[in-house]
Structures are given as structure tokens and as C-alpha cells.
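Glutathione S-transferase family protein
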Amino acid sequence: MITITAMKWVLAFAAGQVRDHRARWILNEVGWSYEVRLIDACDLASSQYRKKQPFGQVPYLEEDGRPTLFESGAIVIDVATRAGMLIPAEGNDRSLVLSWVIAALNSIEPYLMNVAEVEYFMEDAEQKEARRPAVVAAAEQRLSQLEIALNGRQWLVGDAFTIADLMMASVLKIARRLDLLKSHSELMLYQDRCLDRPAYRKAVADQRATIDSHEMADMRFEEARRTAG
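Predicted C-alpha cells:
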């Protein structure tokens, strides 16, 4: 049996965004059943959890007889490869798919997360105002470069949806949440195509259902802080 980890609860802006939705999405796409282990702050900080996810994040994927995998991109690549779905088995297109998966995580996501950090986590108004223009401009530049590279095509590689599109569309959820896609109509249409899949809709619905059924107290933040202190 496959088990993935997911947060019991997150703030409203993060619902539907937490990266376990990527693991759920690919598992739904290939039709593999899985269980979800719900995690709180104490779990994330524990040495037992860190042995499986060194950075105390979600998700990890655990499966009998196999090493525990962490990092959503690695999970997506592994599941797609083993299932023989959404990634070519060999050849140039496989190499291109892998390039775009890494590009989503390395060349797009960090720039969007810089904007998210300013919007959601910076408390000092002056510092926020000073930093925001630079990080927004950098994110906009990367989105423009992506739009040029897409060049009106339906999908990033070949004639069908692949994990390159799964990962890129997932990363672009951050941009849409931050209203960064409003000036990039091609990317909005592209993302809409990617997210109009039953496997994605179920992944996000399941994640949101878990979050909606819990509250902040379930995360045990205070207990985790006391233990760390």
C-alpha cells in the first residue's frame, strides 16, 4: 500500500495549494490507490518524521519494499515512470518532459514563492512595500519567458498532457492565487486545460475536505513550540 503525508489544517490561502496535492494528482492519474497519513506540527518536528522527510515538509510517499520518497517532483516522476503513463519511456521527448518538470520547480516556483513570502509572511509594512516591486517584476519576467516558450501550443511537450504540464500547472496555481496571471492570458488558458482533469479535481477536493474538517488547534503548534524550546 502507498501512503502519502498531508497537513491536517492550513491557513485559508494555502488550502488547495499544499504540495501533497501533486502526489494525489499523479496517483489519481495512474489509478493507484493510496492512504493519507495526516500530520501536525509535532509530527513535522519529530526525529521519526525527519528520517523520512529530512526537511520536515509534506508530502512524502511511503510504499512497502521501496525507499520513502520526498520532494513532490521526485514523487511525480517516479510514479509516472513506474506506471508508464504521462511520460515517454525513452527518447528526446522524455528528456524534454524532465527538463520542464525541473524548470517548473527551479526556474518558475522560487520566483512565485518570493512574491508569496511578501504577501503572506512579511509583517513589517515598510519592508513589504520596499521588497514587493522587485519580486513581482522578477516573477512577471519568468512568466513572460514561459509564455514565449509555450508559444501557443496546447502542451509543453508533444501532443498530449504529461507530467511536465502537471507540475507546471501546479506551480502556476501560486501565480493565479497572487493575481500574477491576469496579464498572461496564454498561461491562464494553458493552466485551465491542465486543471480540467478529474484526477486534479479529486486531488484538490480531497485535500480541502481534510483541511475543512480540522482547525488550527489540531496542528498543535503550541505543543511543538514548547517541545522545541
